[in-house]
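User: Quick sanity check before I run a bigger batch. Here is a single chain. Can you write out its predicted 3D structure?
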Amino acid sequence: MSNFITLDKLKTKDALEGATVSFFQTDYQTVGYTVMKAGAEVPLHQHPQEAIDIVLEGMLQMTIGESTGILIRGMTSFVPSNVPHTAKAITDCKVITILHPQRKI
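Assistant: Done. Predicted structure follows.
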């Protein structure tokens, strides 16, 4: 893996209706790059990894446990291990997610 990665050149997968996701991994982390159309929703789920979400573009509504917030460009959320969470793109969005420890993809 190169030390320099161009997000728009990573191989994409259709993650869910209205969204694509790309991944790269380091020895200890998984990094996801998600491009979401307005209205796309990530269903309620949880995983053992901690997650940090960074909004690069757009407006994203996230619910983490019992808390709901709106994130805009430059904002970050933290999802603790095994806490149920969901997300919905209010506008078209680009989001980076950092998962630790590494997640099998």
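The mean pLDDT is 96.

User: Great, the batch can go ahead then.
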